[in-house]
Design brief:
single chain; alpha/beta; elongated
Length: 560
């Protein structure tokens, strides 16, 4: 099949039953979640179903994962709502067309990035930033769904505004709606814990529809989904202008970054478990094709789903043929089964959303990031000693206070600033000679080590460049003024790189210390450092590098 359908290469007939069963299992989860995620995106529930078939088939054609399931997802649905909402200007009539247009733009951007081999772009969203972003987004989505669970109107805005509106409206709570929604939520979460093999969301949806019909819940104040169009989606380019596409462009970049990072993470997770490789650039092409298919099908933004991919693999899927089965079953749903969902209580739909994303509020993961800390790092970097935790919290609070896209870029910006801050303050350790083998090691980690009389040995743990050169010079000068010091040895084994500014600083430092009768010696440089020192015409004493710290110390003591 050439470069198409990569997961079907070497297909075996005995896999067909497993792929079909896995497809049916994923379909049972995808249908109610697609309806729910479409409501998050601010469009008709059927739009979630419109997006799935073409996206699933096209990803199977181009994607590199055997197990990844693509479709509407909570995070990108919320990003879609925020991006489209800024452009739609409150017009419900334009919301659907703009949502499909955004899916097209995200798909086109991903396809172009894949063809240009820009898969490394996902590296700019670190795992802690993505974790904080997802937690903040999950909390915001839950806050938006709670009014449906209580049967009140609620309000828009950021997380805090939504919670404030909810609290203000609680006086109008519908007891029947709470009973239906809470019952659905308890059922889904209970089945997930006690019988994870059962499609809890589909069971809750079926029971909700049955209860609405049997007890006339709509007459008792319980809101239902209402009319859902039956039949295949309208195909073609959405009715939007070039100005609309321009207004969506900036937001589509943020949606693309999140969609790609989340889908790539899911694909790599299960590829590692089954010992095959994921091609990041091909994943971009697969995501791009899926997005174009969803947009041309009047759908919404799609991306890889970790939860549905997990279900797909656990149900026995061997290839992307399972995704094609999901697509076929979704088309059958659109043609014959949409009428069943018209009586679905919105409270049950809200319960499906909340149950699907509550596991994304991963507080233990944030606590674990906070624990990655040592006293030594604290002394070196202060509050920035927990950069991953701080970046995650910045993304989380950014989403809660300012919205989805600003929160994402706040997290990315915070992580880059913390990286720059830490690189500008490398750890400088004083070394001492260990008893017995005579090796040199950090005195802080090995207090049994001894200082060499008259010689200070320092190790810089990181590159030396223009942003940290002055700090390193001041630390070396402080060490050189100790009484009786005749030499300072720089152990350069952990210096990964130097620039011309660093060489000029070391030259000036050597001359400064020399005027005080203190020599600056260099030991154990690595290849790149040696090359730059030579090319930049460093002082002779810096170009003479000793092979070991012990040799440099001996030269300092003997004056050779």
């Amino acid at each position: 099949m050439g470069r198409l359908f990569p997961s079907l290469r070497g297909y075996r007939r005995q896999w067909l039953g497993r792929d079909a069963l896995a497809g049916a299992t994923v379909w049972a989860i995808l249908v109610p979640e697609a309806l729910a995620y479409a409501t998050i995106a601010g469009v008709s529930p059927v739009v979630g179903l419109y997006a799935a078939p073409a996206a699933l088939v096209l990803y199977a054609v181009f994607g590199s994962s055997r197990h990844l399931v693509v479709g509407p997802m909570a995070a990108t649905a919320a990003l879609s709502a925020a991006t489209v909402g800024d452009v739609a200007g409150g017009s419900d009539a334009r919301f659907g067309a703009l949502t499909a247009a955004l899916a097209l733009m995200v798909g086109a951007g991903a396809l172009l990035a894949g063809l240009l081999r820009l898969g490394f772009l996902a590296d700019f969203i670190s795992e802690p930033v993505l974790k904080g972003f997802i937690v903040g987004l999950a909390l915001t989505i839950i806050a938006g769904q709670l009014p449906k669970l209580f049967g009140v109107e609620g309000g828009s805005g950021d997380f805090f505004e939504k919670i404030w509106h909810l609290v203000a409206d609680l006086g109008g709570t519908s007891g029947t709606t709470v009973l239906v929604g809470a019952g659905g939520l308890v059922l889904i979460l209970g089945l997930k814990r006690l019988a994870p093999a059962l499609p809890g969301s589909l069971i809750a949806v079926a029971l909700g529809i049955a209860a609405a019909a049997a007890f006339d819940l709509e007459d008792h104040g319980v809101a239902v989904v209402g009319r859902i169009d039956t039949g295949l989606p309208p195909y073609g380019f959405p009715d939007v202008s070039l100005d609309d596409l321009g207004a969506l462009a900036a937001g589509s970049v943020g949606v693309l970054l999140v969609a790609f990072a989340e889908g790539l993470g899911a694909a790599k997770t299960y590829a590692a478990r089954d010992h095959y490789e994921i091609d990041a650039d091909r994943e971009l092409i697969g995501l791009g094709a899926a997005g174009l298919g969803a947009g041309l099908s009047s759908g919404m933004v799609v991306n890889g789903s970790l939860s549905k991919t997990a279900v797909n693999r656990s149900a026995g899927a061997r290839t992307q043929l399972s995704g094609i089965f999901v697509a076929v079953l979704t088309l059958v749903t659109l043609l014959f089964l949409t009428g069943l969902f018209e009586k679905l209580p919105e409270a049950v739909l809200a319960a499906v959303v909340i149950a699907a994303i509550v596991e994304l509020v991963d507080v233990p993961a944030l606590v674990a990031l906070h624990r990655v800390f040592t006293r030594r790092l604290g002394r070196a970097y202060g509050v920035a000693a927990r950069p991953d935790f701080l970046a995650a919290v910045a993304a989380l609070l950014g989403v809660l206070a300012f919205g989805t896209l600003p929160g994402l870029f706040i997290g990315i910006g915070a992580s880059l600033l913390l990286l720059l801050y830490r690189s500008s303050r490398p750890v400088v350790s004083e070394l001492g000679q260990l008893p017995g083998d005579g090796h040199f090691a950090s005195l802080e980690r090995h207090p049994e080590g001894r200082r060499i009389p008259g010689v200070v040995v320092l190790r810089v743990e990181g590159g030396i460049y223009f942003a940290n050169a002055e700090r390193i010079r001041s630390l070396f000068r402080e060490a050189a003024v100790r009484e009786g010091t005749t030499a300072v040895v720089l152990d350069a084994e952990t210096v990964s790189f130097v620039d011309v500014g660093a060489v000029r600083m070391l030259d000036a430092l050597a001359r400064d210390l020399g005027s005080r009768g203190v020599r600056l010696l260099l030991a154990r440089d690595v290849g790149q450092v040696r090359d730059v020192l030579g090319a930049a015409d460093a002082e002779d004493q810096l170009r003479r590098v000793y092979p070991t710290v012990r040799a440099a110390v001996e030269a300092a003591r003997t004056g050779t």
